[in-house]
Amino acid sequence: MSDASRVTVQLPRVLAQVTGGARHFEVPAGTLRQVLDGLIEQQPGLGYHLFDEAGAMRRHILCFCNDEYRRGRDGLDVPVHAGDRVTILNSVSGG
Amino acid sequence: MSAIVIAGTPKGAMIYRSDPSRERWEVLGFRLEGWGVTSTTRDASGRTYAAVNHAVYGATVMVSEDLERWDQLEAQPRYRPEERGNPDHNRMLGGGDPLGVYKGDARFVDQIWKLQVAGDTLYAGVSEAGVFRSDDRGKSWQPLPGLNDHPNRPNWIPGAGGLCLHSLLTDARDPNRIWVGISSAGVFRSDDGGQSFHQKDAGVSRDEGVCVHSLVHDPEDADRIFRQDHRGWYRSDDGAESWILIENGLPQSTLGDEHRCVFGFASALDRRSGNVFAVPLTSDSFRYPHGGRLRAYRTRDRGENWEELSRGLPDDCYAAVLRGAMASDGLDPGGIYFGDTSGCVYASPDLGEHWARLPGTLPRVVHVGAYAL
B49-74 in b/e burial notation, b at 16+ Cβ within 10 A? Predict the structure, then answer.
């Protein structure tokens, strides 16, 4: 059951390979960084794929909050409110 | 017995299973969809490990007990945040950052080029060049400091595919001995379990760097090593202390700097017969089979003489065969397999005497693994 203080995170299909097939998670609201930390706490294997060795978010990952792009000039320190839906996508190019 | 063949591509892996004759093949499926499959290895229990890679989400290792379900290992080989990367490599590959998000000089595992089981140890050879080992089936990884902290590391020159450690050999009789091949830093050997590595390229032609392309040997006869280099085919009989040219019967071409030699990437060795296989290409400037005729070559006398193998291979192929895309299955007689960059996979059940295409046209084949089932 959905908790009013939580947000929903949706993963791209390719990352479901490392979560045993799950693509939707509920984690506590906070900043985008805190939301991602909460996601990795539930699914530690995602940490390798969202952040690199230097601690930076991999550069072609896109984060949307309720369909609005939220990983921009302010990085990950932007608020995500309870009930919001965070969608993680990646840039797509090539053949 | 039958064979399993795994053809790794940038978009997943096609997995095939043969009947006992290895004349008929069943497609088990296209697995690990969306991930580039760059290397596989299989342990004595039948557990299969796959190194996978994604342009956005990085490199990781998957494991499967049944070739159907794949799960990520608990831990992954990674550099420490304080380790400094090779600036040229970072400019060439994923560590570079036009947006300024990265600091730019960290060292990243951007691809796992080689996974190898040796006894109870799982090794990972990675790009940016380094080696990690796991002694607990992937629950944890330890760097091999002699290579990852090698004192000459700042002088290593990346090849066209980056500074990658793509070849790794072990000695079945002495687990402390390990050989690695790095483009284009050369071949290095450790005699102390990875605490130190020393460069071993005496006798090999070199230009700016030392660009080894692939290494094969029999771990039970570890000191005899075969080497497809950017600048020719070589053999060592003394554990890489010295190298001699073995090109009699192989087609040569002229490299961009006018050096004449046998150019190519792929190699395989059948342990039962000792036969070694190669697929030479036309020079570093063109990189397709000589005259468009796709041919494997075999030596039955340790490289003293090579013979062309053509039955079943096409006369109109302008694709390349990459360094990881050739394998032997260990059965009797040895099955030999290779894939090309146009997505074709070829199989021979009889040490290269006859070849047939396996089903399907795949994305570019970057890896072929073959295993007795």
Answer: bbbbbbbbbbbbbbbbeebeebebbe
CA B78 to chain centre: 20
Distance (Å, whole) CA B204 – CA B243 = 6
Q: What is the pLDDT of residue B99?
A: 44
Distance CA(B326)–CA(B278), nearest Å, equals: 8
State how far the Cα of B11 lies from the Cα of B220, in Å rounded to an integer. 35
Paired tokens of B270: 């059948």
> CB distance A60–B106 less than 8 Å?
no
Q: Do A54 and B81 touch (CB under 8 A)?
A: yes
Q: A58 and B103 in contact by Cβ < 8 A?
A: no
Does B44 touch chain A if contact means CB atoms closer than 8 Å?
no
Q: Give chain A positions within 8 Å (CB) of B103.
A: 54, 56
Regions of chain B short of the pLDDT cut 50? 95-103
* CB-based contact, B54 to chain A, within 8 Å: yes
Tokens linked to B175: 């687990």
- Compare all CA atoms of chain A with the CA of B74 and give the residue at the minimum distance: A45
Query: Nearest Cα to B186, choosing from B210, B168, B216?
Result: B210
Establish if B106 touches chain A: CB-CB under 8 angstroms. yes
Residues of B in contact with A15 (CB under 8 A): 57
Give contacts of B75 with chain A, Cβ < 8 Å.
none
pLDDT for the residue numbered A74: 62
The pLDDT value recorded for residue A90 is 87
User: From start to end of chain A, where are the E strands?
Assistant: 6-10, 24-28, 30-31, 61-65, 68-69, 79-80, 85-90
Partner residue opposite A53 with nearest CB, options B32, B72, B106: B106
Task: Using an 8 Å CB-CB cutoff, list chain A residues near B55.
Answer: 60, 94
Characterize the bridge pairing of strands A79-80 and A68-69: unpaired
Q: Is the ipTM reported for this complex over the cut 0.95?
A: no
As a whole number of angstroms, the distance between CA B77 and CA B170 comes to: 19
How far from chain centre, in Å, is Cα B371? 15
Look at B32 and A17 and tell me if their CB atoms are within 8 Å.
yes
Per-residue pLDDT tens over the stretch B85-114: 998 888 777 544 444 444 468 899 999 999
**Contact between B145 and B133 (Cβ < 8 Å):** no
Residue ranges in A1-95 assigned as alpha helix (H): 32-42, 47-50
What's residue A2's pLDDT? 54
